[in-house]
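Appendix C reproduces, verbatim, an entry submitted by the partner laboratory led by Prof. M.T., so that reviewers can inspect both the input and the predicted structure.
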Amino acid sequence: MTFTGSTGARESGSARAVTLIRGAELVAVPWKNGGGLTREVAAFPADAGLDTFVWRVSVADVAQAGPFSRFAGIDRTLVLLSGAGMLLDETQPDHTLKTHVLTRPLDIARFSGETAIDARLVDGATRDFNLMVRRDSAQGELAVWCAAPHEAQPERSLSADVVLLYCANGPLAVTLGNAHDDANRNAHPQWLQTGDALRIDTPSALPCNLEGTGALLAISIRYTQR
C-alpha cells in the first residue's frame, strides 16, 4: 500500500494510494459575500475550479443566512458538523417549499445543485460538510459510521474508485487491511482527530476497521465516465 502523508512522505507497497489529510492544514477561503468561509478537503481533478471539478469535498463555516450558490449538474450532500443548525428552504417546481432540517450534528440534506436553496440559521454560526458530485461524470454516496468505546465494530469493506473517510468527531483509529492476511501483516491504525481525513484511491474491497469514540463520514465515489 502506498501511503502519502500531509507532508508528501510515502511508504512503499502496492499501487493503492492512501493520503492523510490533516484538518489543521486546510486553507480557509472567505466567501465573496462575507457570509462564511470554506476549507477544501479534496477534489478531482486536483486544483479544479468550481466549474470543472468532477467531485469536491469541503467544510464550510456559515456565519450568515442567505441563498446558496447554484451549481448546475451537481448533486449535493450536506452534513451538519457543529452549531445549532440550519433550515434549508428548497423551492419546488410548483413553487411550494420543502425544508431540510439540520438541527443535530450529523443531520443530512441531499439536493440538486441547480435548486433554489435559502438557508436560515437556527442560532448563530454553523459548520457543515459538503459533498458535490457532477452527476454526468460520477456518483457519490455518503454514510455515517459511529463508534463508541467498548463496543465491537463490524469490519467494513471499501470498494469504489475513491473513498474518503472524514472524521466528523474524534479521535478515531482507522485500520486498513486485514491483519490476518500476509500482505497486510503490518497494518496499523491511523488515528484521526476531528477534521482529519483519509483518501483511498482504488481500494478494491479493502477491509476497514474502526475504533475509538466519535463519528466518521464515509464517502464513496464511482466514476461513470472515464
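The first strand starts at residue 2 and ends at 4. Additional entries are available on request from the coordinating office.
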